[in-house]
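Case study 2.
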Amino acid sequence: MAHLIGALDSGTTSTRFMLFDHSGSVVAYDQQEHEQIFPQSGWVEHKPLEIWARTQQVIQATLAKAQISATDIGAIGITNQRETAIVWDKQNGQPVYNAIVWQDLRTDRICKELEAAGHADFIYRKTGLPVATYFAGPKIRWMLDNIPDIKEKAQRGDLLFGTVDTWLIWQLTGGPNGGQHITDPTNASRTMLMDLETLDWDEELMAILGIPRAMLPAIRPSSDPAFYGHTQPDGPFGAAIPICGNLGDQQAATVGQTCFSPGEAKNTYGTGCFMILNTGEEIVRSQNGLLTTVCYKMGDQPTVYALEGSIAMAGATVQWLRDNLQLIQHAAETEEIAASVADTGGAYLVPAFSGLFAPYWRSDARGVLVGLTRYVNRAHIVRAALEAICYQTREVLDAMNADSGVPLSRLKVDGGATVNNFLMQLQADILGAEVIRPRVAETTSLGAAYAAGLAVGFWRDLASLRANWQVDRQWQPQMSAEARAAGFAGWKKAVERTYNWVDS
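Prediction:
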């Protein structure tokens, strides 16, 4: 009898497969990174076939570590980097181009043309999204415009589009031999093509962006008792297991953190940083630079919506310190290095490497390191990088407080960077709010598992998931209000220095 649920988490820098038991505890997992491709300034790509290869490898490695057979797994849930766009030939499974990653800026011209044509307000009303390079729709448009001989194939339905969840579900359920072309509302809501109210592709939005409906996947619930399909016996599982859970990574973390009531919020520290506030069945239009998005759709239950603040550079900033500046060898070093100095020596790092996301949405911005004197050393810059993560989160929380009218006094946190205890104390200080880390920090995978487990009755209801959630550690703010205000004022000045760096 199945006593485990599997979760496939395909993120921006790596893919992992995890197995969870009834208590929500991790039984086994494996993880592998994939290549980050930067063809030119502002462009970011991945190889879809490499992501598929890594997926097969981590599944097989996890099963071997756990010493189980596929019959021990009751269902599979999937979570993924959301706005990354893949287009492929459905006859042979070959991508027409590399995956264009959510951080990519090449669609800036397309977005400016949409704004100039007066479409921005209509797109926002329909989708809850600003016109921005972040989202998948303009990426599809770029491929149709720039890759030879694919427009006609797209119109005929010979090409398929998907975010990474769709790509992997298609591969796992058969690929060219009957693979299912499916996504869920959390991922579809990040394309600039889905109507938030109907949860369906919108004809007017497709016409504005010039994207044929034949390319787009069916939109199914995030937790689907009818199943999206089954894994193939000749695939990495070696058996037919139902795939019935699917959530974009940040919504998956929200489910993993059991933020099921309106007003509950979480912040995930991954490649980027993403705060989500559950707004219940109400679609709340942000007045302060946040996104309105689908939080989750469980079976035939009403759709739950959310406000989201998206930050492009969090863990990726630490990766930049390691790979580009070579100031550190491992991310774990940042805790000791940053703690070795009392402050940043007046330096601020604003990592607007892909422009500024929430609450600014400035594609013309670029990263700056300001306030430098000869006193500033390596430790100050490392600390400034960690403070940048915290200050960006503070700006999103302020916007969320303004939109919701209910100041948040405690924030649930998750993601890889939350193992840095110094960073978490710094976050509590800069927010002036309690920060709470759960026992299972990788809640993104857990949320995907929950969605799948609910669909097959492995977990009975949301209340049973709440019972699994346990606190690992909490941090209270220790910084004075005066110091907090002064530091934030300096941050705001630094952000202003990033504006208007790109002229065209």
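The chain is about 35% helix and 20% strand.
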